[in-house]
């Protein structure tokens, strides 16, 4: 009985593996022409200051609609794009697109605060991100203080000299650097004092089961205390309820992002969001 079960398991594994490989190949092939076919777009999600209620930033989130595959969520295609070396050109497209959008909003006095762009590891390890960011800021005539870059902990922990140097240069330019999905990666925290990071983003997995899960409350409280004692900003992602926002604020977390405030929005939806709840314009 154990033997036949073993065979079933084996069959199950090969079937799902085959399906997975086919899906990966499809995604990779379709992604190759996603930019030239105009299949990519950005949605934007507001980031809120909890005490004032003001929008302090908007995070650019990549969306892909392919004719054959339909809508493919970033969690499904970004890792594949990274492995296939496609995240370099896609990442550059995202950065430039976000920059053009920020320019347009500045021209029209739409107070978006900072525009936050997610950066994939290979964008720093395999190319000159500093050059790309400088070119974009110059081309879009944007102050560096308009831009925030979200990098992941796993990437940070690779801690290569050339990447660290790039982070310092970006910081000196005035670009804000945030660690995304904080708490899900490595446990060594020594990089927090070595690197020019100014913000931690608490991963949404620690927010989701609040307030029922007391372990999650303990973890997020610890991250908040850590950020506050190191003089870093801290933002919680995935905030869906008022209760969660209240707990976070009580613990000393000033910023939040999540469905409670807004889902990621298209450009025109975001502009409606701003006109429905006018913000005090942030002078620059
Ligand atoms: P992330 O950077 O941590 O982005 C937050 C994710 O949480 C987004 O998923 C957002 O839609 C989702 N989210 C926001 N508020 C809530 C909430 O209240 N509840 C729940 N359940 N989810 C919420 P999305 O847009 O599917 O993106 C997933 C991930 O894909 C991102 O996680 C990021 O790691 C990656 N990604 C997205 N766009 C880019 C990009 O342009 N470049 C790179 N390198 N990665 C990107
Ligand atoms: Mg992010
Ligand atoms: Mg995140
Ligand atoms: Mg995440």
Automatic annotation (TrEMBL):
<protein>
    <submittedName>
        <fullName>ABC transporter substrate binding protein</fullName>
    </submittedName>
</protein>
<feature type="domain" description="EAL">
    <location>
        <begin position="24"/>
        <end position="278"/>
    </location>
</feature>
């Amino acid at each position: 009985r154990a033997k036949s079960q073993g065979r079933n398991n084996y069959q199950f594994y090969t079937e799902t593996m085959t399906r997975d490989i086919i899906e990966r190949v499809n995604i990779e092939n379709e992604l190759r022409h996603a930019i030239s076919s105009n299949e990519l777009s950005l949605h934007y999600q507001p980031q809120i200051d909890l005490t004032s209620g003001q929008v302090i930033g908007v995070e650019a989130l990549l969306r892909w609609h392919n004719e054959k595959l339909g809508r493919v969520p970033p969690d499904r295609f970004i890792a594949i794009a990274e492995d296939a070396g496609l995240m370099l050109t896609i990442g550059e497209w995202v950065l430039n697109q976000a920059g053009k959008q920020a320019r347009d909003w500045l021209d029209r006095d739409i107070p978006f605060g900072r525009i936050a762009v997610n950066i994939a590891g290979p964008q720093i390890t395999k190319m000159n991100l500093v050059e790309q960011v400088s070119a974009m800021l110059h081309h879009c005539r944007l102050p560096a203080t308009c831009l925030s870059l979200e990098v992941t902990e796993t990437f940070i922990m690779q801690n290569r000299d050339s990447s660290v140097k790039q982070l310092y240069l970006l910081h000196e330019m005035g670009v804000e650097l945030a660690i995304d999905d904080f708490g899900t990666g490595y446990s060594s925290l020594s990089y927090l004092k070595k690197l020019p990071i100014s913000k931690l983003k608490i991963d949404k997995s620690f927010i989701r089961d609040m307030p029922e899960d007391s372990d999650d409350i303990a973890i997020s409280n610890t991250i908040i205390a850590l950020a506050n004692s190191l003089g870093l900003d801290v933002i919680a992602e995935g905030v869906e309820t008022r209760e969660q926002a209240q707990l976070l604020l009580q613990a000393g977390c000033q910023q939040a992002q999540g469905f409670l405030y807004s889902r990621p929005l298209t450009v025109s939806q975001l502009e409606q969001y701003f006109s429905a709840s006018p913000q005090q314009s942030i002078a620059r």
